[in-house]
Amino acid sequence: MKSIFKVSLLAATVMLAVGCQKEEEPKVEQQPEQQVQAEAAKAVHFNSEDDKAAYAIGVSFANYLSSSLDKPKEIGIELNKELVLKGIEDVFKETAALTEEETRAALEGLDKRVAETMQKQATEKAQASLKAGEEFRSQFEALEGVTKTESGLLYQVLVPAEGETPKESDTVQVHYKGTLIDGTKFDSSYDRDEPATFPLDRVIAGWTEGVQLMPVGSKFKFVIPPDLAYGDRDTATIPANSTLVFEVELLKIETTQ
């Protein structure tokens, strides 16, 4: 894992300058953005394009470093920005309190703590999601009209029909809405105002199995356990071990082989 705090000499210079600016500038939190920018422009004088480029590099590095320092806070690791600036200042004064080896060891230790904390939190979140999904499926299974297949897929017929049912090798056209068990919507063809068309053997197992049970013109509600969905994969919209809920309308079978 690459260290997130290997600060280059250029970045260190920038952060030192930014720290000094913060001490000298008045508070402007409540001033309009354009006024703040105008006052900042007056405080800095560019004698050449090189000066302006140097300042731009400073802004870029400061933004990057500020973001990097804030990320560990999200997982409970607090990093004192004043000490970051103090370390930079001490290096330029050649009075650093840590040797290169001690610095490297401290950063490697931080990387390890960040990785371990993130892994622990991800594991706890996945376990909680698994348990919540089991409870949700148990409650849904007890509802009237719900059927459970041998694989563990649960479904409920919302709108019955007597049309043709697709095979696994077919391409189908559907309208659908997908949510987590708490109702959070992560996908919807209705929102796009356009039905989805796809080969039935190229989607998650719960869909492949479930849509084959649907006659054309019907609408089903599926509750899909993690092992028939995305399992322990964690994405931005679907947490690991999520039970998924879909409402699906089978509009037509595009092709039959």
CATH top-level class of the largest domain? Alpha Beta
What can be said about the biggest beta sheet?
Answer: 7 strands, antiparallel
State the end-to-end distance. Answer: 48 Å
Shape type: elongated
**Number of distinct helices:** 7
Total number of strands: 7
Average pLDDT over all residues: 84
CATH architecture call of the largest domain = Roll
Instruction: Tell me the number of structural domains.
Output: 2
Give the C-alpha Rg: 28 Å
Order of helices and strands: HHHHHEEEEHEHEE
- What class, by secondary structure content? alpha+beta
Hey, roughly how much beta strand do the residues contain?
15-25%
- Spans of at least 5 consecutive residues whose pLDDT stays below 50 are 1-28
Percentage of helical residues?
A: 40-55%
Keywords:
single chain; 257 residues; alpha+beta; Chitinase A, domain 3; seven-stranded antiparallel sheet; 7 helices; elongated; disordered N terminus
If you had to describe this structure to a student in words, what would you say it looks like?
- The chain has seven helices and seven strands, in the order αααααββββαβαββ.
- It has helices spanning 9-24, 33-43, 49-70, 81-92, 100-141, 189-192, 205-211; strands at 146-148, 154-159, 171-180, 185-188, 196-199, 219-224, 244-255.
- Strands 1, 2, 3, 4, 5, 6 and 7 form a seven-stranded antiparallel sheet that branches.
- A hairpin with a 4-residue loop joins strand 3 and strand 4.
- The relative contact order is 0.11.
- Residues 1-28 have low confidence and may be disordered.
